[in-house]
Each structure stands twice: as C-alpha cells, then as structure tokens.
Amino acid sequence: MFPKKPPMGFNTWNTFAENISDEMIRQTADAMVEKGLLAAGYEYLVIDDCWSERQRDSVTDKIIPDRKKFPNGMKAVSDYVHEKGLKFGMYSCAGVRTCADYPASFDHEFLDAKTFAEYGADFLKYDFCYRPENVNGPLLYRKMSMALKASGRDIMLSACNWGSDNVHQWIRSTGAGMYRSTGDITDSFVSFRDIFLSQIDNFVYSAPGCFNDIDMLTVGMRNRGNVAASGCTDTEYRTEFALWCMFSAPLMLGCDVRNIDDVTLKLVTNKHLLRINQDEEGRPPFIARYGSDNMRNIYFKVMSDNEFALMFTNLEDGEYRLWLPLEDLGIPVSSGKGLSLINAFTGEDAGIVKENMYQSLEAHDCAVYIAKIVDA
Ligand code: GLA
C-alpha cells in the first residue's frame, strides 16, 4: 500500500492499552461514522498491543486473539469495521514479544502476515521491543514488509522503531507507508513539543509513499487513559494538532472517540487544517524564521493549487510577538505582491499582508493561515 496522503485514523493505545474488546472496537467504529470522523478522513481503526492470548497456539503456532476480549475472533471485528466503511489495523512487533509482553512476530513474520490477511487487516503497526540483540533492525522491517506483500492482501506497514538506526534514511526503501520516529508520546505539552522538535530536521525525508509518524495524537484525551500525564489546555491541543497537520504527520487519534468533546471534534475535523495535512504535494514546510532554538519558529509550506500554509509558533512559556518580513518567504517588496490570508482555525478572512507581518501569541499558542499570493 502506497499512502499518497498522511494516513488518518484512530489507535487504541493512548487511551485504552490492554482495556480493549470486541464491544469497545465496535462502539469506536460506530462513533467514527456517527461523529463524522470517517467523513473527515479518519479511516483506519487500529488495534494496538494486548489483543492476543499470552501464548501462540501450540498446534498451529498462530497468534490467537484473546478469547475474553475478542470472543468472536478477530475476523468478526474486522468485518464489522469494514461494514462501517472503515479500514482495519492490527499490531505486532519485530521482536520475540510485544512491548506489553504478548507473542510477537520474530521468526514468524510470514505466518503472522498471513494471519493478519485472514483477519482482513489493511494496516499493521510493527513495533520494536524484545528483539534479539544482534539482529539487524532494518532487516526485521524488510522481512515483515515482504511477508505482508506475500500475504495476498494489501496491508500497509506502519513501522514503529522509535527512530532507531536512522530510520528516516532507509525505511522508505523497505516499502513501509509510515514510520514512527520518536519515543512514546504522553498527554502533556512538553511531550508533544519535544517529540515535534526532535524531528525538525527529518521532515524533509517524509513524503507521499512514506510519512514520518510522530506518534498518535493526545488531542482531546484531557488527561484520561493510558498515556495520561499532566494533560493539555485547549490552546496546547490546538498547537499539537496544527503542528501534526503542518508537517504532514499521520493523524491517528488517541482519545476515546466514543466520548469526544465538541471542542476536540471541531478541531480534528477542521477543514483548513486537514487541507494542510492532506495536501497532495506533501511538502515539508521551510523555516521562514528561526526563533529561540526553534521555540518561536515561523513555518511556510508550499501546497498545491498555488496555496500556502503559514504557521507562527510560540512554544515558550511567555507571550511573544513574532515578526515576519515577507522577504523571508521569497516575496520581496519589489515584487508588488502580498499574501491574502484565511485564519485556519476560524475560517475567517484575515486580510492581505505585504512587506511585514506581526503576530502576537500567548504561551504555547500558534497561528495558522492558508495563504495566496496577490497584488498588494
Ligand atoms: C511501544 C509503542 C507504542 C505502543 C506500545 C504498546 O511503546 O511505541 O506506541 O504501541 O509499544 O505496547
């Protein structure tokens, strides 16, 4: 599977960890349709770790779904998800056990890929715990990629080696469609800020076909569930979501979408932000102006149809006023051109700027605009 745009969906880990079940997955599938998330593009429903029995079947050597959590087996769950128009995602790991200590796919790659194909999986998140010390990391991802391709079903490989072995340099060549580049996110401003900042120089490797995955979103978790930490304010969630959109990161929701609140739903279905994330050209933004060790950067992203996305960030703890001379975007005063702006959060017309733009931002806030070049 070759993802032309950053994959979008929901993953169980951030909120549910081992508290997953047939019922919970079906309710989530229902919610994704009823709340308009599927219509907005969130198409994958991914079951993360903790879905299986603790041991493989002693006769077939297959991984078996947990009989209590999934009494109807996994194909029944997958069928339900597909009937709703969603795609179905599974999870395994390249080592001998998953990160939460369930059976994993080392030396069972082809058998497991076939099993996932039998379930009707469209997506496989493939983790990196408990791998034998002297085994080559890239080879483990090549193996599962080949196993999926041999499985008889189109299953996207979502690699998850947390950035090991300079993953951005080789993962595209394995056939994977996205790749985790960082350690695990928790529901706090500092966590998503540092995860984002760690990848600033690597987003140039992320493009249609294989996207840099900076982890599942914590947006809307409101400090509940498995990766709860200090929680985030609405301003911080807005900044998190906007950064993920601006940098074409996969948008995998991690909150409990069955109970998603209105503020979060509005944010994650915002058509301007999704237009930026899903732009078919999938270009990385450039840093138009650096500020304070990347804490106050201004980003500019060239998109299709002669549109642009402009983002001001303030990741610092105090209020700041940022200055952008349009010269830094490649629009000199002598051109006679300026930018007409739409505020991405509100959809409001933000007028035309020329020569200089100023943006005041509260702590941890951002501003995002969709821009067009106009005579000014
Ligand atoms: C690792 C991954 C997480 C999650 C857990 C499951 O930590 O990075 O995203 O899949 O394993 O155990």
Architecture overview:
The chain has 376 residues and is α/β, with parallel strands linked by helices. The radius of gyration is 21 Å and the shape is elongated. The strands form four sheets. It has an eight-stranded parallel beta sheet. Helices cover 27% and strands 24% of the residues. The protein is built from eleven helices and 18 strands. The protein starts with 7 loop residues before the first strand and ends with a strand. The structure holds alpha-D-galactopyranose (GLA). Alpha-D-galactopyranose (GLA) binds next to loops.
Number of H/I helices: 11
Cofactors and ligands: alpha-D-galactopyranose
Structural class: alpha/beta
Net shape? elongated
What is the succession of H and E elements? EHHHEHEHEHEHEEHEEHEHHEEEEEEEE
With strands numbered from the N-terminus, the spatial order across the biggest sheet is 8-6-5-4-3-2-1-10
Q: From the alpha-carbon coordinates, what is the Rg to the nearest angstrom? A: 21 Å
Beta-strand proportion: 15-25%
Give a count of the beta strands, DSSP E runs of length 2 or more: 18
Summarize this entry quickly.
The protein is of the alpha/beta class and 376 residues long.
Question: What layout of secondary structure does this protein have?
Answer:
Elements: E1 8-11, H1 13-16, H2 22-34, H3 37-40, E2 44-46, H4 73-83, E3 87-93, H5 109-119, E4 123-127, H6 137-149, E5 156-160, H7 167-174, E6 178-180, E7 187-188, H8 189-198, E8 211-213, E9 228-231, H9 234-246, E10 251-253, H10 262-268, H11 271-277, E11 286-289, E12 298-302, E13 307-313, E14 320-325, E15 337-343, E16 349-353, E17 356-361, E18 366-375
Parallel strand pairs: 1-2, 1-10, 2-3, 3-4, 4-5, 5-6, 6-8, 7-9
Antiparallel strand pairs: 11-12, 12-13, 13-18, 14-17, 15-16, 15-18
Helix pairs in contact: 2-4, 5-6, 6-7, 8-9, 9-10, 9-11
Alpha-D-galactopyranose binds at residues 13, 48-49, 98-100, 127, 160, 184.
